[in-house]
Design goal:
Domain Thiaminase-2/PQQC: 15-203
CATH architecture: Up-down Bundle
Oligomer: single chain
Number of strands: 0
Protein name: G8765 protein
InterPro entries: Haem_Oase-like_multi-hlx, TenA_E, Thiaminase-2/PQQC, Thiamine_Salvage_TenA
Largest sheet: none
Shape: globular
Distance between the termini: 42 Å
CATH class: Mainly Alpha
Number of helices: 10
Strand content: under 5%
Organism: Coccomyxa viridis
Helix content: over 70%
Length: 205
């Protein structure tokens, strides 16, 4: 089993996570500020939790893989600073209340922290993959949202995601049957909650 196989478990779920109407609305400029701002506030909350998850994965990763997570953690720290700047520009709350959908995603991260490294490696790759692929497919994105698509949909981020995929594929080679089932379940859970995250923003008043 490889990472690419996980995206074929339910193609409808994968498509819903990667090509959601929220992204299309960003692309054509029809997104309402309240919708985008909801996504931005909640995504900051999620990335803050994801940065902590990255540290957990790095701690259990085999030595040859650890360097990538160290670099990823540094990038996430910089990203949180960038998020704060974007939130301030829009006069939005930094670290405000969690929407139920965001809270559910953070709870999923907490559950993944209890899993073995192969499960965590695949989960980490898939979360970053969705960031890359969703914004890449939506590009070009209308102003003033283009910088967000450019941040995650660019070639350099694609290379980073590819490295994560290679490491996750390697980790899965050593996964036993129980771990493989856990990997499939985790992948499906991530894709479902990613779709719900976009939908959360789309439904904002």
């Amino acid at each position: 089993m490889k990472c690419s196989d996980l995206l074929q478990q339910d193609c409808g779920v994968s498509k819903a996570a990667l090509q959601h109407p929220f992204l299309q609305a960003c692309s054509d400029g029809s997104i309402r500020p309240s919708q985008f701002n909801t996504w931005l506030e909640q995504d900051f909350n999620f990335v803050n939790a994801f940065a902590k998850f990255a540290e957990k994965v790095r701690a259990v990763a085999p030595h040859p893989h650890a360097r990538v997570y160290i670099d990823g953690s540094a990038a996430l720290a910089e990203e949180l600073t960038w998020f704060k700047e974007k939130l301030k520009e829009r006069n939005l709350i930094i670290g405000g209340p969690l929407h139920a959908t965001c809270a559910a995603y953070i709870d999923l991260l907490a559950q993944l922290e209890q899993q073995s490294y192969p499960v965590q490696a695949v989960a980490f790759w898939l979360i970053e993959y969705v960031y890359y692929k969703a914004w890449n497919l939506a590009s070009p994105v209308a102003e003033p949202y283009r910088e967000f698509a450019d941040r995650w949909g660019n070639a350099d981020f694609s290379k980073y995601v590819d490295i994560l995929e290679q490491q996750a594929d390697k980790a899965m080679q050593d996964a036993d049957q129980k771990e493989q089932e856990s990997i499939k379940e985790a992948a499906m859970a991530i894709l479902v909650v990613e779709q719900r995250f976009w939908q959360m923003a789309m439904e904002a008043a």
